[in-house]
What does this fold into?
Amino acid sequence: MAEPTVMAEPTVMAVFAEVLLDPERPAPPGLVVRPGADPRRRLAVYRNNVAAGLVGALRVGFPVTERIVGETFFRAMAQAFAAGHKPASPLMFEYGSGFPAFVADFPPAESVPYLGGVARIEAARLQAWHAAEAPVLGLPELAERLGGGAGDAILAVRVEPHPAARLVASRHPVAAIWAAHQVPGAPRFDGPWQAEAVLVTRPADEVRLRSLDVAGGAFAAALLAGASVAEAGALALEEDAGFDAGSALVALVDAGAIGKLKGARV
It folds into this structure.
């Protein structure tokens, strides 16, 4: 007969960590304070420090998002996010992966409809910087693997994205807006208002952004998701009848978005 499973009691530190992130919970049993001190007030100090740390992590990760709405508004928005989102990892750079979606649905920010898209760019940049190391496919290797660039060979190609590659698509010109707010006091974006996709890559250990139009974004999204060049090109042609899938593939390789080719002739 199997031995019954004995569930270990959570440690005082584990309970303390949970209580820190839930202001509705009372101080845990076993919490030691100096004589005459109120454990609730002491616990509140720690809770405030934790909240300040989470908000600080978001300020570091989303500086342009903060610059657009201002420090006071951003802090309130970050506090609202932190109140309902506990860290899932001890690595603080991973905190805030859900922040862009929160920003996009944050009612007080509805007058800034592109804010969530800008936050997605910043999250993608952070993820790209910390992504795994891997070789980047270069243009000479692309030409060699495709055996001189025969049309059928190109159309059959599928790719393995580089681990750092990210794609952000938006109804708004978020890359241009992000670029226009790189320094405090920068003028607001006043260029053409159109949909835009943003390719984020990290060739040569440098995070880079490349703006794509709707057709280019559709092609990149499909190709990086596993479609062949022909399949991705067909989707792009629905957006732009003059789309050139071969040139778009070369542009993705040049940007450092592709790690390997699959289905190409060796």
About this structure: Residues 134-266 form one domain.
